[in-house]
Design brief:
Strand order of the largest sheet: 1-2
Structural class: mainly alpha
Helix content: over 70%
Shape: globular
Strand content: under 5%
Radius of gyration: 21 Å
Number of domains: 1
Largest sheet: 2 strands, antiparallel
Number of strands: 2
Length: 235
């Protein structure tokens, strides 16, 4: 019984192992690129649009609204990064219903890479919004003595992101494998459908947490009048 995609080795040469994590990750990326190409090559601005374009517009609009609600900022700068995280994780988890497929998010190496991408993106978006000086001030607020703890929190939340996604994906695969060995007909189908739902929820939670971290870095140190302005605009 394979729980992690790292355990499935397709080809090995010296120190390099071509495992299912690498293969299925590239399969997902290629699939998303192909789908994006066919969806976007004939975009229409009229009322008659294809089903795929309609789905794409709903997806992008929903992600934009979520980013706006979380960050209270224009979603444009953050949509490509956060949207890519959500779509990749959602696709990786959703394909678990395909026989013979093992989700790459069940590998700690994949979830660590995703968490590290968020770890790198947080200061990049923070510096872009506040400048280097404005971003670094948050490490000294409210006192310079808090700097080591602030830096430690950056690393700890990265570890938490990786382990949370890995644990959820691995536990789901383990439960399905156990039920298959006990009752090989009814329960696996139900668990696969439940796993499809939880996979989408995991992707949503990961994307939301990434946006929360980015938004907190981009807004740190901004004057209170910015928040007052946003409240007045909502009213």
């Amino acid at each position: 019984m394979r729980i992690s995609s790292d355990e499935w080795i397709f080809w090995s040469w010296r120190w390099f192992d071509l495992n299912a994590t690498i293969v299925f990750t590239w399969v997902i990326m290629a699939m998303l690129v192909v789908i994006s190409f066919f969806v976007t090559r004939r975009l229409s601005e009229t009322e008659e649009i294809s089903g795929l374009q309609n789905f794409l517009e709903v997806l992008v609009g929903g992600l934009s609204d979520q980013i706006m609600d979380i960050s209270r900022q224009e979603p444009g700068p953050y949509l490509p990064f956060v949207g890519t995280l959500f779509i990749f994780i959602a696709a990786a988890n959703s394909l678990s219903v395909v026989p013979g497929y093992v989700t790459p998010t069940g590998s700690l190496s994949t979830t660590t890479a995703l968490a590290l991408s968020v770890f790198v993106a947080v200061p990049i978006f923070g510096v872009a919004a506040l400048g280097i000086g404005g971003y670094l001030k948050q490490y000294l607020h409210p006192t310079p003595l808090m700097a080591p703890f602030t830096i430690l929190s950056e690393f700890s939340r990265t570890v938490a992101l990786a382990i949370r996604l890995y644990g959820n994906a691995m536990s789901g695969a383990m439960i399905v494998a156990i039920l298959i060995s006990i009752t090989p007909f009814f329960f696996p189908v139900v668990m696969q459908l439940l796993g499809l739902l939880t996979g989408l929820i995991q992707a949503y939670i990961f994307a939301v947490l990434a946006m929360v971290y980015i938004a907190s870095a981009a807004q740190a140190g901004q004057p209170e009048k910015h928040n007052i302005k946003m409240m007045n605009e909502e009213v």
